[in-house]
Amino acid sequence: MWASISWEPPACPRGPHASPAASPAASPASSASLGDLRETDSLLGSEKRRGRWTSYWRRADAGRRLGRRHLQVALLSLGLSLAYSCRVNLSVCIVEMTNMNSTSGFPAYDWNQSQTGLILSAFFWGYVVTQVPAGMLAQRYGPKQFLMVGVVGCSLLTILTPLVAAYGGWRLMCALRVCEGLFQGMIYPSSHTMLGRWIPPLERGRASAFVYSGTSLGTVSTMAGVGLLASSSWGWPSGFHLPGALGLVWGVAWLWLAADSPAACPAISEHEREYIESALGASSSGDKILRVPWRSIATSLPFFALLVTHLCQNFGHWILLTQMPNFMKNVLHFDVKHNGLNSALPYLCLLLSSFVVGYLAQVVNERKILSMTASRKVFNSMAHWGAGTALMVLAFTHVTSTQAVALLTVTVALESGTLAGFLVNHVDLSPNFGGMMMGVTNSIANTMGIIAPIFVSQIVGDANTSTQEELENGWSIVFMIAACVYFSGNLLFVLAGSAQVQPWNSPSPAESKKHQVSSAGAIS
Fold first, then answer.
1. Please, are residues 383 and 310 in contact by the beta-carbon 8 Å criterion?
2. At what angle do helices 144-184 and 131-141 cross, to 10 degrees?
3. How many structural domains are present in the chain?
4. What is the DSSP secondary structure assignment for residue 420, as one 8-state letter?
5. What is the 3-state secondary structure (H, E, C) of 199-255?
6. 3-state SS, residue 422
7. How far apart are CA 11 and CA 374, in angstroms?
8. What's the pLDDT at 132?
9. DSSP 13
10. Which structural domain, as residue segments, surrounds residue 230?
11. Angstrom distance (rounded) from CA 140 to CA 51
12. Which of 27, 244, 260, 275 is 20–30 Å from 325 (CA)?
């Protein structure tokens, strides 16, 4: 009897008011519909997963290919090269400009050691003024226009230099150099802002090494080229005309090809833009206006270590860059042609070693051989402690001219370590305020450019009235002091430096909103 009774368990209702007829088990059509839905959901999930993986691999592929960010890096490097050409050409040209025994037929000026020291240092009187304002303005309004004004403005003044020297004397030359410094003060902070907006963190070491190797390229080409031009039929005025004209050509290319950020670049591919923005993540605000956390920055120990390291670096850097032709003329007795070539040799080696450092930094960071903080400290120690050791040898041993040039070459070439050391550390600590921070440290550090020529002239004395022994002893003291400064600055960086993004990089939402409202009111 029980076998003749067919029984099915009741379907579980989906809700309190569901009826058996509405249940999936109520009809074959419902079961088929549920199967279709499940298959559709499965397909959709598969498509979503495939889409996520496709997007990931496209971004990864964009990271491996050359793109618009690499074009920005190349333009930045070339711009810095030309800016340095306009900055350092006077260091070589002034040797011939003040050579009263010259038979070249071009004007020579009776400027003494103190006057030439003032002319060389005057650049930095203007240079330190615009650093911080340029960093803040570049962060707020975009770095492109400030880089343009900096390079083009300085190039125009460089072209006018021979005319000013002829009709204005050394005082007007000082004024011209101050104005050149005002223009060039915009360049470094704006370059840092560009790197912070365009370059993913893992690429930053190599990119910054390439960008700032432009300074070495400009120094090499100028010291060697200007030395040859000054000894040719074109004379020393061509050492100003050529770099200035090239700077104007660069300005046209920059205006056409550069962009403030990936979001502002119409020619960038969508994949590359996504790759950059996802790599930067929340650490960079892009084009947003943020309140500068001045108090937090000023009380930050890693920032203080960075500032002191930058100060010590520039003390040695500007002594070598502005006074090496003087040393080679008065102590090593090279003529203007060989002076320029031998002064350029250390910076040629610096240029070549910059690419090696950039590659090594990329390998170390990508493979995580060292933490980012340890990597920055190792490369910076190679630069400062290595350079300090070479200067100590030069100061305390009697060397031939060839050995002296070799030691100076080692000193300058090791400076490439700073490209993956303290020099990119501003953006490590704060991608949002890296450009502004570079403005602060660069402004303070480049007071050494004012002090260095005066410092050397006071210790070494006037070459026209000093004996050879007095000149050699004076330069030994200069090299010893520079070495001690290198050692002490890097020691602080090793003990207190960091490459971690600091908490004050991203202000609280309330502060940012308040600042943006007040900024909008101020603009309107």
1. no
2. 170
3. 1
4. G
5. CCHHHHHHHHHHHHHHHHHHHHHHHHHHHHHHCCCCCCCHHHHHHHHHHHHHHHHHH
6. helix
7. 66
8. 84
9. P
10. 67-503
11. 36
12. 244
Q: What is the DSSP string of 61-86?
A: HHHHS--HHHHHHHHHHHHHHHHHHH
Contact 291, 116 (CB under 8 A): no
- The label of the residue with tokens 């300074």 reads 215
Measured CA to CA, the distance from residue 522 to residue 503 in angstroms comes to: 27
Q: How many CB atoms are located within 10 Å of the residue 336 CB?
A: 23
| CATH at 180 | 1.20.1250.20
Residue 23 domain-assigned (yes or no): no
Consecutive 10-residue runs of the chain (524 residues): their mean pLDDT?
39 42 44 50 50 45 72 94 91 81 76 82 88 86 93 96 90 94 92 87 81 86 80 84 94 94 89 86 57 89 96 91 80 73 83 88 88 94 95 88 90 91 90 84 86 83 74 90 95 95 74 38 28
What pLDDT is recorded for position 22?
Answer: 42
Q: Roughly what angle, to the nearest 10 degrees, separates helices 68-97 and 238-257?
A: 170
pLDDT value at residue 283: 52
Residue 152 lies in a domain: yes
Q: What is residue 143's DSSP assignment? A: S
How far apart, in whole angstroms, are the C-alpha atoms of residue 306 and residue 75?
27
Q: Are 134 and 153 in contact (CB under 8 A)?
A: no
Residue whose tokens read 């963190």 = 201
Reduced to 3 states (helix: H, G, I; strand: E, B; else coil), residue 6 is coil
Q: In the chain, what are the helix, strand and coil shares in percent, each to the nearest 5?
A: 80, 0, 20
Q: Which residues contact 77 (CB under 8 A, 6 or more apart)?
A: 210, 211, 212, 213, 214, 217
At 169 the pLDDT is: 87
**Is 55 within the bounds of a domain?**
no
For 356, other C-beta atoms within 10 Å of its C-beta total: 12
Nearest to 327 by CA among 215, 478, 448, 454: 478
Using one digit for the tens of pLDDT, what is the confidence trace for 113-134?
A: 778 878 988 898 898 889 888 8
Two tokens at 239? 């050492």
Q: b/e string for 471-504 if b means 16 or more Cβ within 10 A?
A: beebbbebbbbbbbbbbebbbbbbebbbbebbeb
Asked if 416 contacts 353 with a C-beta cutoff of 8 angstroms, the reply is yes
